[in-house]
Amino acid sequence: MITDKVRPHHLERKALLYVRQSSAHQVLHNRESSALQYAMRDRLTALGWSEIEVIDDDLGRSAAGGVQRAGFERMVAEVCLGKVGAVCAREVSRFARNSRDWQQLIEMCRVVDTVLVDQETIYAPRHGNDRLLLGLKGSLNEYELDLLRQRSLSARYEKARRGELVVSAPVGFVKAGDRYEKDPDRRVQEAITLVFDKVQELGSARQALCWFHEHDLDLPVKQNNGDATWRRPNYATIHRMIDNPIYGGAYAYGKTAAASGYSADGVSVQKRRKARTDWLALIPNAHEGYVSWERAEAIRKMVSSNVPTGRHHGAPKHGDALLAGLIRCNRCGRKLTLKYTGAKHGIPRYSCSRAWMDNGAPHCIAFGGLRVDDAIENALLTVVGPGAIAAATAAEKEAGQRRDQVREALGRDLEAARYAVDRAFRQYDAADPANRLVAGELEARWNRALTHVAEVEAKIAGHDATMPAAAVDPLALGLLASNLKAVWFAPTTDARLKKRIVRTIIHEVVADIDDAAAEIVLVVHWIGGVHSEMRLPKRRRGQRNSTSADVITAVRQLVLIANDDLIAGILNRNGLKSGNGNRWTRERVTSMRSNYRIPVFKPAEDGIEPWLNLSNAAKLLQIAPKTLRLAAEAGEIEAIHPLPDGPWVFARAALATSAARSIAERARQNPRYPAGSHPDQQNLFSSTT
């Protein structure tokens, strides 16, 4: 008989009744199954056990091995200690649905001679036939679980491929059978639409978040119970909306996959996002969205390209460098890195240093960015210049028609706050005044609602007070558009806006350096598919702010007759500036001379100066200064004139030549016209003699 497997030494030990259901839903709704499992206690009593312990710690936990089961582990531990004569379950599949746990239990029961009991029979693991039967049942249980899972998932996936599987609805949508519908709350609808408008306008999810924080506007967030609550937005809130295709009217399923992780706490299941090509279903225009599918995709790609990677340009930032994220090395194909140098950290410099940072390889190229940016700006303004007036007129018209989005959002908040006040008042008014516990709480809620209304009204008043004045005059705007450079180089023009314009027109710039010609070679890839090449002279470090070569040459000539103080005055009189745009002083002239190794003016010890100015040279020749100047201008005597509004410089040796003596002799013979006539000038009157 089958009861022969139960021996007296089994009955001397206690019996364990293992009760388990796979999910919390089964625990709550499948009450008959749990009742039948607890009824197995009567079968153990009929078999002769008096001490019976029920282990029901694993209710709501699967036996597939993916979760930790404290009750099963405690049961195995009790069996290992030899304190258990029998372990019982309604079906043996309740113990385990995976081979690892099942074989562990059978092996422990064989070692300590513990029987397994279910509703049909008793198994003695020490018997070879029973052990074989238990092994087959364990394999069948594991296969049955896989088969059930495959069938349910296949049906689920087929429904998802048809776009009919609606699991949960994000904020802004509600489930309507097998499809999504927009939330009927107009405040929620306008808030979500505003998110997409601001992201597209500002070009970045981060900038849109800053705009919402600047104007102290809230966004809806869906709670676990399905209700929408209003909170201060964060970056994840906005980015989830942009990345979710449901807001573009598309149905999507299979965006994530479960990945098992193992740690000291056991097995943990985490979700990881899959590439869009690996999604199970993506059906555009499946329901009404907040934006069109094309616009939603354009905004998503724009936000994705803000990530600074090798394939994307990165988001425009506040720096002045126009080509940040757009310029690439022609030698290695990597993007050039940008850093700002100079005393005020405002001078951009592009360098190909990624190979050095990653692998310790040498730098490819490096050059200053000021001249490069200037060339790109000139080319860009040349391209967009013809359409500037039309674009300015269209922008002004659009600005005039644009709604005050902040004012409308605050108006919706005020309407919702007033509804909350009215609802709190009706609840307070319906309460029994004698019940002070209830009436006091309702009165406090009413007061909080009134305070919130006052806060929203204060926000609206502050916003109306800071509203800008009337729009720009169209005639003035047309004049400004005709001078696009003035708008581009204005200090109030945002650098991020400039970069967005550049990225709209230019796809990429490939840079290289021609070492033989000392030139920077730029190949500009325009959006329309046209390519143009630019060659710019490569400056030495600091050369852009260095003193002009003409000024240096003039100073080299002026030091022959003038000291630093006098030279500074001459340079200022001619309107010349230093390399940094400053007026000249004695100290700056001294510093410039020292930098370019120009000798200082020193008077001759014997009083005989080798170089003379106009007055001293004329005195030496005993003629008028004007006579000598006219002769020098006519080229009759060698002289140096460094600056238009500056002194003449004569060499003492040149004043001792025959040309100088001829000028002096002619001046003495013809005192009325000492300079005489030019030898090439012809007489208008012929001689009569």
CA-based gyration radius: 45 Å
Low-pLDDT ranges: 684-689
Query: How many strand segments?
Result: 22
What overall form do the CA principal axes indicate? elongated
Q: Proportion of β residues? A: 5-15%
Helicity, as a percent range: 40-55%
What is the structural class? alpha+beta
Record the strand order, biggest sheet: 2-1-3-4-5
| Count of alpha and pi helical runs | 25
Described by its quaternary structure, the protein is single chain
Q: Mean pLDDT, as a whole number? A: 83
Cα distance spanning the termini: 169 Å
Biggest β-sheet, characterized? 5 strands, mixed
What can you tell me about this protein's structure?
It is a single chain. By secondary structure, the chain is an alpha+beta fold. Helices cover 45% and strands 15% of the residues. It has 25 helices and 22 strands. It has a five-stranded mixed beta sheet, sandwiched between helices. The chain has a four-stranded mixed beta sheet with strand order 14-18-19-20.
Secondary-structure map with pairings?
Elements: H1 8-12, E1 14-18, H2 24-29, H3 31-38, H4 40-47, E2 52-55, H5 70-80, E3 84-88, H6 99-112, E4 115-117, E5 122-123, H7 128-161, E6 173-176, E7 179-182, H8 186-202, H9 205-214, E8 219-222, E9 228-231, H10 235-243, E10 251-253, E11 256-263, E12 266-273, E13 281-283, H11 293-304, E14 327-329, E15 337-341, E16 347-351, H12 354-359, E17 366-368, H13 370-384, H14 388-401, H15 405-430, H16 436-465, H17 474-482, H18 484-488, H19 495-505, E18 506-514, E19 519-526, E20 531-537, H20 549-558, H21 564-573, H22 586-596, E21 611-612, H23 614-621, H24 625-633, E22 650-651, H25 658-669
Parallel strand pairs: 1-2, 1-3, 3-4, 14-18
Antiparallel strand pairs: 4-5, 6-7, 8-9, 10-13, 11-12, 15-16, 16-17, 18-19, 19-20, 21-22
Helix pairs in contact: 6-7, 8-9, 8-15, 9-10, 14-17, 15-16, 21-22, 23-24
